[in-house]
Amino acid sequence: MAYRPSNNSSTQPRGARPGHRSFGGQSSNNRRPSGGNGGGNRRGAYIHPSKFINKAVAAVDEVVYEHKNNFADFPFTAALHANVAKRGYTAPSPIQDQAIPLILEGRDVIGLANTGTGKTAAFLLPIINSLTTHSPRASVLIMAPTRELAVQIEEEFRAFSQGMQLYDAICVGGTNIDRQIRDLRRGAHVIIGTPGRLKDLMNRRELNLSNVTTLVLDEADRMLDMGFINDIRTIVSQTPAERQTLFFSATITPTIKDLVNTFLNDPAEVQVRTADTSERVDQNIIEADTKEARLDILTNMLNEAEFEKVLVFGETKFGVQRLSDHLERSGHSSVAIHGNKSQSQRQRALKTFKDGKARILVATDVAARGLDIPNVSHVINYDQPATYEDYVHRIGRTGRGGASGKALTFVPTQTRR
To answer: Cβ(28)–Cβ(19) under 8 Å?
Structure first.
């Protein structure tokens, strides 16, 4: 049964012109939903609306994890313990509890965990501890699939390493490469980057990986989804064979198994996947046959009190920006992130949303995976995704860390017949 907004907005207002492309993506007559990869017009296979309907699994049905350690038990330096305490960390999450001791031992680790489970701290904390107790020539390379995730990792690194005189270089596209080159030449202890920009810097002979002692591949499955396999192989080939490798992924595919066998040496596997995030999210559809109807329903729906912190996904860069501007003019605090914005603009918008200064973030699929955005109450698919996998990535921004969440997807009425 389709979700019905409490304001009883009509899904077919009088005078609406079918297929009118006022905001967002595909025409209501298009039975091949599309998604966004930062603004492309990517088409995918038809997804039946029943795939967008699911009753959330109650978190109480799951076995509560009993951690073996507290953060105070880990053999960190006093300065790192102080920074951990400053962040309010006391009991580690399952991935932190199991992975940190193995990483501290110097083992290669495969971490299989859902998004939003604290894996960034699971690898950063032992890395920072190692950097403060080992040779100053030691260096770390962390690869991530997206600019946003790389920036998020950098923010965590700076918070945990405060006052330790450790330096990082973030190497991602969409930002000034000259500044990144200066940071690399200064001698960064930790290099955080996306595969494309890292390879570019290697080709310019500005990135020397001969001293890398620890290699981290975060969201490895997503990097492969985005076509980075050859770049990853090229980059890793330039690191020493004698290194510690930490490999984090939500899934294990044959290609990932091949990478594991190639890159890792006798790895320890930490498997803490629970129910898929999508199973913890109440999912439903909203029927609307015109763009005007869809826009009217969305605008009115956002007046309801339950829509506290909302992430709206659209297909195109142009449509996302227009929709965000319309919501802002309608009295809803809204920001947008998409491929036409610079990295600094995207980061400002994301911070505004995270800090609660904007209640709505409208985005293309650039924001669909890997970002840690706390307390998102609703994900709304204003335009349908290209694939069901994209859908799962989108709605994974809510219902994180055991919290409840809701996802709503607009569909034309005719697709249910």
So the answer is: yes
The CATH class that applies to domain 71-271 reads alpha beta
Distance CA 258, CA 119 (A): 22
Cβ burial 399-412 (10 Å sphere, 16+ → b, else e): bbbeeebbbbbbbb
Mean pLDDT of the chain: 83
* Distance of alpha carbon 349 from alpha carbon 364, whole angstroms: 13
CB atoms within 10 A of CB 317: 21
Domain extent listing, the chain: 34-60+276-416, 71-271
Return the exposure string of 75-85: e unless at least 16 CB atoms fall within 10 Å of the residue's CB, then b. Answer: ebeebbbebbe
Helices (H) and strands (E) in the chain, counts: 13, 15
The tens digit of pLDDT for each residue in 32-67 reads 333 333 333 445 567 888 888 887 665 445 567 788
Distance of alpha carbon 100 from alpha carbon 74, whole angstroms? 8
Exposed / middle / buried, residue 396 (Cβ in 10 Å: 0-12, 13-18, 19+): buried
Task: Tell which residue, 248, 238, 197, 188, has the closest CA to residue 370.
Answer: 248
Q: What is the pTM of this model?
A: 0.71
Angle of CA points 97, 216, 133, to nearest 5°: 70
| pLDDT of 254 higher than 90 | no
CATH code: domain 34-60+276-416 is 3.40.50.300
CA distance 173 to 13: 44
Distance from C-alpha of 316 to C-alpha of 35, rounded to nearest angstrom: 8
pLDDT at 74 over 50: yes
Alpha helices in 140-228 (DSSP H): 147-160, 177-186, 195-203, 220-225
Condensed to tens digits (0 to 9), the pLDDT of residues 330-367 reads 999 999 998 888 878 888 998 999 999 999 999 998 76
* Angstrom distance (rounded) from CA 267 to CA 101: 13
Bridge partners (DSSP) listed for residue 215: 141, 245
